[in-house]
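Key result, reporting period 2: structure in, sequence out.
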């Protein structure tokens, strides 16, 4: 790591929140900086996350100080009342952030994207604190694209995103995933080593659409294929009981979780995946060389669609957009991706995409920001 121009002091602020896709890489970065002797303080949104916890509690459980900041997503509607509410809340967030930043006096503020980072980055600019922005997706979110003009450095998790930023210093660092990702072991289960294991997951909260479509598609598989497969299905809390009951009727071996904190162990024993296309998910897929049928969530700026199409171009992964999704289409694609030759070819390309030094690469940019 280049330490030729290290941060002036050991205090670093990371602004992230609003979605899991911003929170988790922020925590990974924070842990590595803390390990290297830096004092890390988080700014987050006031939302609740992971069903039970407010965001600040998530960071505190990881051993960090965290300040919830008034923030709100930029309206897409032209309604004047939405915009007045937006400016009122953001003004409060900037006032609050500026007050705390003055007290902390960090050497750099890192914005991980999302609306929760906006008031903190604005405040850092007003106080002449160096700013680094990290964009995880193949196409930037509105917050990062707007805030990037205040940043001395923009780091991207997917190299194709560089073209969207006009900054002089745009660096490809890769996306961050937990460093212990290869160490976790799946708890004892009834899975067979002789069957093809299909992993089904719909993001941190689960996806009713994916749960339903996968079950209907599995029903349509030929009996000789059903006898060769088994499924690990992460449903989310809402669908957990109903999905378990339906697998019993399908007579396909399965392990069903509502939510699994042993996800890396699950990747290890899987052969193919059916999943969303968040930046964190596709990075983990690449880390394990796990071929996938991607069903991107078509919300907001369609960033998952861009992520999925990027991975499809690079590796040959299969993409089914929600508007094209049906049990018949999904059944056909399952039959295609479990073919050994196709599966092995996609897997080898995915492993080559994974950037092993992403955490250290981003840390280097952060501590040298000026």
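The corresponding designed sequence is given below.
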């Amino acid at each position: 790591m280049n330490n030729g121009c290290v941060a002036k002091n050991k205090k670093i602020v990371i602004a992230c929140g609003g979605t899991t896709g911003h929170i988790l890489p922020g925590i990974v970065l924070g842990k590595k900086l803390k390990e290297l002797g830096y004092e890390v303080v988080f700014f987050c949104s006031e939302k609740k996350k992971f069903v039970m916890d407010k965001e600040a509690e998530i960071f505190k459980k990881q051993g960090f100080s965290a300040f919830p900041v008034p923030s709100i997503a930029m309206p897409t509607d032209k309604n004047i009342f939405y915009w007045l509410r937006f400016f009122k809340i953001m003004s409060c967030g900037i006032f609050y952030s500026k007050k705390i930043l003055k007290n902390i006096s960090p050497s750099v503020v890192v914005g991980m994207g999302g609306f929760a980072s906006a008031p903190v980055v604005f405040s850092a600019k007003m106080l002449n604190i160096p700013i680094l922005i990290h964009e995880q997706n193949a196409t930037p979110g509105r917050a990062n694209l707007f805030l990037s003009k205040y940043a001395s450095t923009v780091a991207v998790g997917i190299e194709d995103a560089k073209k969207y930023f006009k900054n002089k210093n745009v660096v490809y660092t890769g996306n961050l995933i937990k460093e212990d990702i290869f160490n976790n072991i799946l708890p004892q289960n009834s899975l067979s080593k002789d069957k093809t294991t299909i992993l089904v997951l719909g993001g941190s909260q689960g996806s009713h659409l994916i749960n339903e479509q996968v079950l209907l598609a599995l029903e349509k598989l030929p009996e000789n294929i059903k006898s060769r497969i088994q499924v690990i299905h992460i449903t989310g809390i809402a669908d957990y009981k109903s999905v378990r009951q339906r697998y019993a009727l399908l007579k396909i071996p399965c392990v069903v979780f509502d939510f699994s904190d042993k996800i890396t162990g699950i990747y290890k024993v899987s052969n193919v995946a059916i999943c969303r296309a968040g930046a964190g998910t596709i990075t983990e897929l690449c880390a394990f060389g796990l071929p996938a049928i991607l069903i991107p969530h078509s919300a907001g700026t369609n960033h998952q669609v861009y992520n999925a199409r990027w991975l499809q171009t690079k590796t040959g992964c299969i993409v089914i957009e929600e508007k094209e999704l049906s049990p018949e289409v999904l059944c056909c694609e399952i039959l295609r991706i479990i073919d050994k030759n196709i599966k092995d070819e996609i897997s080898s390309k995915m492993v080559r995409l994974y950037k092993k030094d992403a955490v250290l690469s981003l840390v280097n940019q952060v501590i040298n920001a000026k």
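The longest helix spans residues 80-104. Residues 2-7 have pLDDT under 50 and may be disordered. This case is discussed further under Risks and Mitigation.
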